[in-house]
């Protein structure tokens, strides 16, 4: 195997192993670390001291997304067990309180932390990972199906190829990624169709994430302005 491919495979294996072994307490410690604590505190919404405060809820949600099954019940069970192990009072294992707490998380909190953490990771990338001394940023887009609710259908209409009542709302997602570290630097979400929903328009909303000297790499679709 080529040396670079061997290194990349080793790095991917390490990332997968670390993700598989990460639980909500791991993410809670990261969110309250010196690198992120100030940013997290600034983004916290007004809240009462509940069983699942925003920082703990976000930690649980991150662990849930990376878990093998992604069920709410498992992450609530895990939290209840760890509370007992830490000498804290027993809590219910019903998922309702956690789901409501997750629903209260501001979307701006998650997106801001993505940008902040991505910036920190990219800054720590070794200079050797740059191309001729210049950071390379990747841009690409995709589409994501969403729950079929009236609110989603109004904001993110389904494709015309789907008959009304049997399709799902579709949103367009465009992301900026650091090639060297693999960190997501920013992301923008828009309509699947209609004015302002194309990938170039979404990219323009993220141009402030680029710095002088960066190289932006995308497919031929982004160069259509030529």
What does this protein look like?
The protein has helices spanning 3-20, 24-31, 37-43, 54-66, 72-85, 96-103, 107-123, 150-155, 199-204, and strands spanning 136-145, 170-178, 184-191, 215-217. The protein is α+β, with helices and mostly antiparallel strands and 226 residues long. It has two domains: 3-105, no CATH class; 109-223, no CATH class. The chain has a four-stranded mixed β-sheet. The longest helix has 18 residues, at 3-20. The model has no long low-confidence stretch (mean pLDDT 86).
Structural features:
226 residues, alpha+beta, four-stranded mixed β-sheet, 43% helix
Categorize the overall geometry: globular
Number of domains: 2
User: Structural class, from helix and strand content?
Assistant: alpha+beta
The number of helical segments is 9
Uncertain runs with pLDDT below 50, 5 residues or more?
A: none
Report the radius of gyration as a whole number of Å: 20 Å
Element-level helix/strand string: HHHHHHHEHEEHE
Q: What is the strand arrangement across the widest sheet?
A: 3-2-1-4
pLDDT average, as an integer?
Answer: 86
Estimate the helix proportion, in percent.
Answer: 40-55%
Instruction: Report the biggest beta sheet as strand number plus sense, adding barrel if it closes.
Output: 4 strands, mixed
Number-wise, the strands total 4
Residues in β-strands, percent:
5-15%
Separation, N- and C-terminal Cα atoms: 40 Å
